[in-house]
Amino acid sequence: MTNWTARLAVISGGLSEESSTHRLAQLLSDAVVESARKQGSEVVVERIDLRALAHDITTASLTGFAPPALADAYEVLGAADAMVAVTPTYKASFTGLFKSFWDATAGGVLSGVPVIVGATGGSARHSLVTDTALRPLFAYMKALVMPTAVYAAPDDWAGRGLEARASEAADELTQQLERMLGGADVVVNGGSDARVSKDGEAPRTSSKSVRTLAETRNRARDPFVAVPTMEEMLRR
């Protein structure tokens, strides 16, 4: 039987249709699916290609409103139990497109969500980008970044080391999902919950409600966002 079912959002910041970034995102998502399968569980993958949303991301950055296709992507992100996020490396950091997507994302959407971060680059000298740029970004967004990050330079595709690192990161993610979704099961069916044991017949699915954009604007509010001025404090 299936122990649990989780939804995985895969964010790819590749700037070409057949990029190494897309390949790494695919490798990581396949590794997560396989790791969950070995535990008798299931992962449903939903992909978000930032290249296809580039114009919408710019519009949202300038106007503060997400066009329909981008809003749909954020709904997928808000419903996800876990995430894989991969970007190309430009000038020792993530791309502007990748950063702009997260700049336009409502606060709190990633709060408590386990994340695998990955990056691609033209040489191994950029390999620290996952720890110097990606990990701080998602830590600020209150996501649970997995210990193993995966960086892929051109030479990495020739050996088995890249697959081994992807499997290690995937195992960490599925172990986190097991802690979140394992144990006594809550099966969500038409808004009514039925609690069953691991020996029952029904698999567990996520019991958390979908975090829509409107619902998350006040979630996980940062107390430093609206710091009062000295003049306002003196009036009190």
Could you walk me through the main structural features you see in this protein, from its secondary elements to its overall organization?
The protein has 236 residues and is an alpha/beta fold. It has a single domain (4-183, 210-235), classed as Flavodoxin domain (Rossmann fold). Helix content is 39%, strand content 20%. The protein contains eight helices and nine strands. Strands 1, 2, 3, 4, 5, 6 and 9 form a seven-stranded parallel β-sheet that branches. It has a two-stranded antiparallel ribbon with strand order 7-8. Keywords: Flavoprotein, FMN, Oxidoreductase. It comes from Dermacoccus abyssi.
Note the topology.
Layout: E1 4-12, H1 20-38, E2 42-49, H2 54-63, H3 68-79, E3 82-88, H4 96-103, E4 114-120, H5 129-140, E5 144-145, E6 150-152, H6 161-181, E7 185-189, E8 192-196, E9 204-205, H7 213-216, H8 230-235
Parallel strand pairs: 1-2, 1-3, 1-9, 3-4, 4-5, 4-6
Antiparallel strand pairs: 7-8
Helix pairs in contact: 1-6, 2-4
